[in-house]
């Protein structure tokens, strides 16, 4: 596999988060992991939502390539999938794709993460902070890559195994230009394993 693609989905919830996660585990995750090009999923709840009008769930699906995701969208499995998820949401989900590379096993087993979307032009300081985070928390615990749909947007994910009220990138972040999400992971799935975290 030369160029895996990370699909990032932000779901605005109509139902309580625990109900979304139950239905995700029962119906949505198995459908995703049954697709030929799906590698793994990581799903959780966005914390610190006091500035948002609704709670959010977030999911990451690693695909072998963008064509693999498109093949799922055009497959017979797509319609039942969206029929199951639509009643759970107050609006359409935000869906973006990034070139982040492979998800390391340690990241898949993590309990929390900070996710930052930022302009690619605002790159100073971030790489060094990601490297320091990896040295502290282990290989594969920070990832960065550019958005396919929005080339001027970059995604940084910093995984960890404990809740952190502040991101390591806080000192660099201009809140007007960067979207930051603190996430508690609830589910991890691969083609062979699906489990609560």
Would you write up a description of this structure?
- With 197 residues, the chain is of the alpha+beta class.
- The chain has a single domain (5-196), classed as Alpha-Beta Plaits (2-Layer Sandwich), CATH 3.30.70.100.
- The protein has five helices and nine strands, in the order E-H-E-E-H-H-E-H-E-H-E-E-E-E.
- The chain has helices spanning 17-33, 66-73, 78-85, 105-108, 126-137; strands at residues 5-12, 38-47, 56-63, 94-98, 112-119, 142-146, 153-160, 179-190, 194-196.
- The protein is globular.
- The mean pLDDT is 85.
- It comes from Thelonectria olida.
- This is ABM domain-containing protein.
- InterPro entries: Dimeric_a/b-barrel.
DSSP helix fraction: 10-25%
Helix/strand order: EHEEHHEHEHEEEE
* Number of discrete helical segments: 5
Average per-residue pLDDT, rounded, comes to 85
- Summing up helix and strand content along with how strands pair, one would put the structural category as alpha+beta
The radius of gyration over CA amounts to: 16 Å
Gap between N and C termini, in Å? 27 Å
Q: Kindly estimate the percentage of residues that lie in beta strands according to DSSP.
A: 25-35%
Overall number of structural domains: 1
Largest sheet: 9 strands, antiparallel
CATH class: Alpha Beta
The total strand number stands at 9
CATH architecture: 2-Layer Sandwich
Shape: globular
């Amino acid at each position: 596999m030369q160029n895996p693609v990370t699909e990032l989905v932000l779901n605005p919830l109509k139902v309580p988060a625990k109900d979304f996660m139950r239905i995700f585990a029962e119906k949505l995750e198995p459908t995703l992991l049954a697709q030929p090009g799906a590698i793994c999923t990581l799903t959780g709840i966005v914390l610190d939502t006091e500035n948002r009008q609704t709670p959010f769930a977030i999911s990451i699906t690693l695909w072998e390539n963008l064509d693999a995701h498109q093949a799922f969208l055009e497959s017979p499995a797509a319609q039942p999938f969206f029929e199951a998820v639509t009643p759970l949401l107050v609006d359409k989900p935000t869906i973006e794709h990034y070139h982040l590379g492979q998800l390391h096993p340690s990241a898949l087993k993590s309990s929390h993460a900070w996710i930052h979307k930022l302009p690619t032009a605002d790159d100073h300081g971030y790489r060094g902070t990601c490297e320091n985070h990896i040295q502290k928390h282990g290989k594969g615990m920070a990832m960065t890559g550019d958005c396919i749909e929005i080339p001027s947007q970059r995604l940084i994910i910093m995984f960890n195994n404990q809740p952190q009220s502040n991101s390591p990138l806080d000192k660099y972040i201009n809140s007007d230009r960067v979207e930051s999400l603190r996430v508690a992971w609830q589910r991890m799935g691969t083609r062979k394993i699906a489990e609560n975290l």
